[in-house]
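Input for the complex:
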Amino acid sequence: QVQLVQSGAEVKKPGASVKVSCKASGYTFTSYDINWVRQATGQGLEWMGWMNPNSGNTGYAQKFQGRVTMTRNTSISTAYMELSSLRSEDTAVYYCARGSSYGDLDYWGQGTLVTVSS
Amino acid sequence: EIVLTQSPGTLSLSPGERATLSCRASQSVSSSYLAWYQQKPGQAPRLLIYGASSRATGIPDRFSGSGSGTDFTLTISRLEPEDFAVYYCQQYGSSPPIFTFGPGTKVDIK
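Predicted:
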């Protein structure tokens, strides 16, 4: 069965960077885009960007341009999202999700809580 | 950029009742690229409906989606206790690829 398993919770200081991993299993990793979505406590879903694991091509939401980098290691079927220059407003649960050919996100990771605090 | 608006913000209903959730787009959306998700506290979102009206794998038939253009609807025909959750609509734009979510509708127990 398709699974996306994310790395554990992180606590970071303002100005630092965080890198979250997302390990895929149960399907061919290079056949589907990986997207990243975040959710602050009590808030809605915010799309951050996508990555094509086959080509490595990426596309980022304008809000995160210059601060986010999405990469992958195809040998271990793992995608990564790194967010830099962290501020308190970046405190949120970060999800990876598989993009389907129908323009939806059909499988989601369990989420990674990133807390930014001095 | 397309903006999605969902109404109502909160829907208070009893088990067994029918729930009708609305998602309105600021400009026309391809029906092929309109999806609905359910999210329960502490859990990741779960895909319910894709292509405006197709149920995702394993989704009960009490969930149905409809609509086109700028107006879309998620209907839950008879609420089960496990259906009380937050529901999000989402649209996909392909050039460039972008996902946009609505603010969500909370369905809670009356």
